Amino acid sequence: MELWKISQKVSELSDVIPYYFFSLVSSCLSLSTVLVVFSLGTWGVIGIIVISFYVVIPYLLFAVPVQVLFNIHPKKFSLNYFCLYIFFSLPAVFIYSSVLNFDFSMDILTTKNYYAISLLAALFFWFWDSVFLQKKSSVS
Predict the structure, then answer these.
(1) Interior/surface letters 36-45, b for 16+ CB within 10 angstroms, e for the rest
(2) What 3-state DSSP class applies to 1?
(3) Closest CA to 120 of 2, 44, 15, 37
(4) Which pLDDT tens digit goes with each residue over 92-121?
(5) Is the dihedral of CA 37, 42, 48, 54 positive or negative?
């Protein structure tokens, strides 16, 4: 590949990076807010900030790589993308909650909270991804 083509790709990617950041931050804050509200608001604003720092790790490891792949063929509010975000959210929430609780048993799969958090995490990321990144122009 010629040097100018590489430079062009890097330039196109650097234009999109802030949108990835906005999508990530919005998703973390949305999920954290809902988690704090459903925990009866005992943590308040501090809880939203703290939980956001915990939530950013699985989003970075699981959702952002999928988001980059989806941005090759952008589609706003695609149900296929939403289903795939749910698919990747389930193992992400399982692994992350297992690591945080030091409990690698399959008991977490029997709780409603596991599925609710997985669905909410996918829903928020899909929504903010569609708002900020899934435009008609794409980085290819």
Answers:
(1) beeeeeebee
(2) coil
(3) 37
(4) 988 888 887 766 666 666 778 889 999 999
(5) negative
Element (H, E) at 34: helix 3-38
Question: What is d(CA 20, CA 85) in angstroms, rounded to the nearest whole number?
Answer: 15
Q: CB of 67 within 8 A of CB of 20?
A: yes
pLDDT in tens, 12-46: 667 778 888 899 999 999 999 998 888 866 778 88
DSSP letters spanning 58-89:
HIIIIIHHHHHHHTTS--TT-HHHHHHHHHHH
Cβ–Cβ under 8 Å, residues 57 and 2: no
Residue 59 to residue 89: CA distance in whole angstroms: 9
Alpha carbon of residue 65 to chain centroid:
9
The label of the residue with tokens 């990530």 reads 24
